[in-house]
Amino acid sequence: MKNNHGANLHQLSETLGINENQIIDFSSNINPFGLSPKGLKKLKDNLQLASIYPDPDYIELKASISSYCNCNSENIVLGSGATELISSTIKIISPKDTLLLSPAYSEYENELIKVGSKITKFFYEKENNFQINIDHLISFISSNCFDMIIICNPNNPTGTLISVEDLEKIYLNFKKPIMIDETYIEFTDSSKTSAINLVNKYDKFIVIRGTSKFFSTPGIRLGYAIVSKGEILDSLNIIPNLWNINIFASLMGEAMFKDYDFINMCHNDFNENFNLLFKGLKNFKEFKVYNSNSNFILCEILSSRFDANNLYNYLSKKGIIIRKAQSFDKLNEKFFRVCVLTKENINLLLKEIEGFIREY
């Protein structure tokens, strides 16, 4: 459970005394539909390329991302995972004062601390169902002097999605660097929800994406950023080490971003599974289930008889792992988060939660 980033399956396997493959992990927010068949085939067919260096310019990989995101190749920066790009961006901008929408992914704060930035948090409030009042946010920005704004969109762990129109309003009232982490945007209709189109329209947008979540590839460590032309983009292009993306990540990326059959299947099946999980959780009167625009759902336990620690301990003994959310700002031991898995796993989770509630 290092760094509070979800389940460490290696450690849990030893603790629970069961094989890693038998653990049903609802904590990691990874697409349950597996790997892109075209990406996997390209990987298998080219294992012998381990003996050569990758293309240092990653022309084919950037072309695939460009087509997938409908953006210009020259605006793309590659990284060994989205977190590396988040770190690099913060180091380059090195903001003295940063506005961070919170609760959010802890690495933003960790990286800001490294550069000595003063961090101010604007909270998604429980009392407003974790939705942002954009007018209040803009007023807050205007009455302060920030150097950078960081927004996870959709937000982890609340599932909150800020519209492109509202992101544009924020920028027009700020006109300084805004980093948008779109790690979970592909679980929405990203053609309408992504901020990528703002990259060409304005000069200080940084959109961060990864492949771990939607493409189920945390092991290949491939992330990318789409960045407005200018000093930030130029500086980001200087940072990476030569051949910083290994050849297998490059090969897989070249194919999976073009695997539209797989991408469309994921979208269609995900929506069905999300609805199954959301409606199932809403059936428990002991929970308040918050609306989500991502592949995870935040729940609050209303009962005074138990909390998320009790639920976690009960489910973990069954080999089911949920995410206790109390490590996030302003969320306490009554909150937990679950991601969307297969229908079979969702039905099992709901059945075991029902059994837990009966016992308590």
CATH superfamily of the largest domain: Type I PLP-dependent aspartate aminotransferase-like (Major domain)
Average pLDDT works out at 95
Helix content: 40-55%
CATH architecture designation of the largest domain: 3-Layer(aba) Sandwich
What is the number of domains? 2
Total DSSP helices = 14
* SSE topology string: HEHHEHEHEHEHEHHEEHHHEEHEEEH
- Could you say what the CATH topology of the largest domain is called? Aspartate Aminotransferase, domain 2
Q: State the strand order across the main sheet.
A: 2-8-7-6-5-3-4
What gyration radius follows from the Cα positions, in whole Å? 21 Å
Q: From the helix content, strand content and strand pairing, which structural class follows?
A: alpha/beta
Low-pLDDT stretches are none
Q: Give me the count of strands.
A: 13
Tell me the name of the CATH class of the largest domain. Answer: Alpha Beta
Strand content: 15-25%
What distance separates the N and C termini? 26 Å
Shape: globular
Query: Tell me about the biggest sheet?
Result: 7 strands, mixed
Organism: Cetobacterium somerae ATCC BAA-474
Pfam family, one: Aminotran_1_2
Cofactor: pyridoxal 5'-phosphate
Domain Aminotransferase class I/classII large: 22-353
Write up this protein.
The protein has 360 residues and is of the alpha/beta class. It folds into 2 domains: 2-30 and 261-359, Aspartate Aminotransferase, domain 1 (Alpha-Beta Complex), CATH 3.90.1150; 37-258, Aspartate Aminotransferase, domain 2, CATH 3.40.640.10. It is 40% helix and 16% strand. It is built from 14 helices and 13 strands. The strands form 3 sheets. A 7-stranded mixed beta sheet has the order 2-8-7-6-5-3-4, sandwiched between helices. The longest helix has 23 residues, at 260-282. The two termini are 26 Å apart.
